[in-house]
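Hey,
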Amino acid sequence: MTNRIPFNTHFRKLQNSAGDNSRSNQPEPNTKPSEPQQALTLQNLKDKLDDFMKLEPEKQKNILGELLYPKILGVAGPTYAPKITGMLVDFDVLAIQDILELLEDQSTLNERIQEAQKVIMQAGESE
């Protein structure tokens, strides 16, 4: 992956979407300090889905990839997990709603992982 931006940067923006991105994390005068940042979970993403949908597609892919990668790693292992994650967050292949469904349904995700592994292996044979 090239120029991968750390997920936490995007998630903080998602958590604080009402704020200006150029501001520092310091509280403004006469305002309460913000609550501690929540860890990235599917539920947090669903709770902030409207804000998430306003992000640039590349940021959306990074966030979805951060959620998918550990699940894919557990099934496909470290050799295939990065490639399969990239394949599954390709918005030309799957819509955001489809990716969210994969995050919720491990058996469907496993099917997609197996399909992706076959594609990778076939591509390797043709080289």
